[in-house]
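As the next step, I wrote out a protein sequence along with its fold in token form, included below for the reader:
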Amino acid sequence: IFSSDNCAALAGNFGGTVRPRTTSAGTVCATGLASPTYWTVQTGDQSENVYGKLKYQLNDHTQLFLDAAAGWQKITNNTRGPNWTSLLASSGYFFNENTG
């Protein structure tokens, strides 16, 4: 919410802590009581590897051999962005900019 009236309309919210704060979007009405959470990354990694070796001696001068290796891997990432949460989210009031 942009600070057109120095946040007077919202001054009583969040225990009177709503004040003009300068951000990259301009000066907005905000409180320090409810801050955004941090990014989290959940990763998953599954991998399998197989190795096999065969050797067969045909005679004193000839040998057959086979070496084989195979592997596969599955990596998953689940990134969760910041969301706005606070204890007041379930018990307080929020100003809806669209409806007033």
